[in-house]
Amino acid sequence: MTILTADAIGTLLDALRTEGIRVEAPGAGTAPYAHDAGTRASAPGSGPAVAFPASAAEVQAVVRAAASARIAIIPRGAGSGLSGGAVATPDQLVVSTERLTRIVEIAPADEIAVVEPGVINADLNAALAPYGLFYAPDPASYAISSIGGNIATNAGGLRCAKYGVTRESILALDVVLPDGELVSIGHRSLKGVTGYDLVSLLTGSEGTLGIVVSATVRTRPLPVARRTLSAFFPSTAEGAVALGAITASRVRPAVVEFLDEPSLDAIDRHSGTSLRARGAALVLVELDGFGIDEQTAELSAALHAAGGTVTAEPEEDAAVLWELRRSGRGLREGEWFVGGDVAVPKSRLPEVYAAFAEIERARGVRIAAVAHAGDGNLHPVVTRAIPAGGDPAHPDAALHDALEDIARLALSLGGTVTGEHGVGRVKRQLAALELPPRVVALHRALKDALDPHALLNPGTAF
């Protein structure tokens, strides 16, 4: 791709201003748009040019103008991504969807909603609640992440155990292609098998194939009841093995989360709680739907038989536990850290946790991991004390080596190097471990077919 001058960017911005599109020139004020949440530590002091379209037509105009000038575009949602999927350089144009925030339609009779990509996940659920509906995907960042960003990474979250990842809730998309053309793919109906499944292709494509400007999403009835069970175990190993008792039962929880001993220690240290006094590992379950008492009785018995201390948590206590799971962990001062996002068949989770000790010894690091245990998705955090003279912004290679060890372990167990955060720029090396050359070639062929000039999010994913 041609290296562009500041004059080329300036000319593009002037052209967009004449069309009434809000833009900002590169500078300190746009620095937050140079990175996402996963790459903030290495962000520059000056940011890229940014366009803020307020309609699908404006997105088209921006993409057409950028394509004509051969200026690369970095699509951006709320910036909450953790894999470097929205990283921009000064010779690129960020297209932010933060002004595309309309909930266009809620159709209760069809159990769907039509939304623009800048709608925040939590705001959509607030709008659906009066209709007795909810949108199932709920990443831990649900309060700040946008639907468009969730689609870009095929985000998961806590409720995946029962309701699936974002892809299972996306029926149709309006997408601006790299040449500026607007296309509609998918259906309002729950079924539809005409042609290739382009909705699934675009969902999880990390802004490399098109920019979503509207999504028709599936909604579901709010459960008649929800209940939280906690089960504490004497050790991480015993808690991980006990997860199999849930699968063996007839109960299918909405959420199954597992917190190992180091994660409980981190929560207590950061949040001033005393979870470790209740046990060394925690299985946290949310049940929903009809027959909540029968579900509670069966699953409580199964977890108790597996060695757990089981409690049906009062509503207020349950809310505290879920918030601690989402945001209660903290890091010690003076530590490097890197985070991961692997997934394995859920029956293999005990093997992953058992392998951490050897990786810690070999790499000189500490590992703590919470897991969406209902679908086998782990989020390990690897830490190490920063030595005198160490740069806090650049973790020692041993931390990344440990993450690669965990990724290789996940692959050996039939899993993946990224369960829900995407590849972005951070995990391209890990993705290369998983995808054989022929499969990579297929990905590149699709990219070349839709984006022959590599203008959309170049350098991301592959």
Automatic annotation (TrEMBL):
The keyword Magnesium does not apply. Residues 43-222 form the FAD-binding PCMH-type domain. SUPFAM superfamilies: FAD-binding/transporter-associated domain-like (SSF56176), FAD-linked oxidases, C-terminal domain (SSF55103). Its cofactor is FAD. Keywords: FAD, Flavoprotein, Oxidoreductase. The keyword Oxidoreductase applies. It comes from the Bacteria. This is FAD-linked oxidase C-terminal domain-containing protein. InterPro entries: FAD-bd_oxidored_4_C (IPR004113), FAD-bd_PCMH (IPR016166), FAD-bd_PCMH-like_sf (IPR036318), FAD-bd_PCMH_sub2 (IPR016169), FAD-linked_Oxase-like_C (IPR016164), FAD-linked_OxidoTrans_Type4 (IPR051914), Oxid_FAD_bind_N (IPR006094), Vanillyl_alc_oxidase_C-sub2 (IPR016171). PANTHER family: GLYCOLATE OXIDASE SUBUNIT GLCD (PTHR42934:SF2). It comes from Microbacterium gilvum.
